[in-house]
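Handout, section 4.2: multi-component inputs.
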Amino acid sequence: VPELPEAETIAAELRSQIEGASIAGVEVVHPDVLEESPETLAQGLTGRTIRQVTRRGKNVVLVLDDDARLVVNLGMSGRLLHRRIRDPDPPPTHPAVRFRLEGENRDSATDPGVLVYHDIRRFGRLRLLDRQGYGTWSRSLGPEPLSRAFTARRLLRDLARSVSPIRSWLLDQRRIAGVGNIYANEALHRAGIHPVTSAARIPADRIPRLHRSLRRVLREAVRSRGTTLRDYRTAGGDEGSYAVRLRVYGRAGETCARCGAVIRRIVFGARSAFLCPRCQPEPPEKSES
Ligand SMILES: [Zn+2]
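Output:
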């Protein structure tokens, strides 16, 4: 499932390939991934120039020359693939939307190519937002964990307001943007915090460690171009290489690299959590006081 590092990798790759190109045509194969009708999307995008490719949370954002934004949420298995017209590789197997590009771009003056939104399971969503709509949407999300605004002090303040289990808190995009189950589990292991611990009950002196772990895990994963367990691919169609560096996620029954205890899988909030029972002791029962 694409999270911040995967969206960041895709956005960074697309930046050099499609910024400055124009959208010559939109072909919708599966309208169920669209928030609006295929006609509205095509009308809003055709003839527009892609001014910038960026990211917000787990979403890849194309900024257009009229200040509208195409927000791409990759869902479970979405890919944004950039292909040249004369690409020797076989065409994508599950295209949902194709954006035909034209015009000058520093890397692709002769063959701007096609941007393909590819999605096997089609839980992804594409939406076209005007400047104001984008602002409203963006403000509904929490801070970017790799931004300067996201400080340990802010994390302490925000956690203190919630009794949610910390793993659920980290997955809530309104509280912090871009973190999903893989990196939440990895960060909690490194911080030595059990996933069911109530956010407000994490000792204050643990918060800087959680803050550091979260940023470190996300940065390392960006450097590895994300985690491919199954569906995720970069914009060029490559796999990310962070999977081998995961310490707990998907590793139930293996030993903890730090202490040698056996990694456990538990399920709550309808999702798996992975933890080392020694590095991440269960929180004490809430005392009645
Ligand atoms: Zn351990």
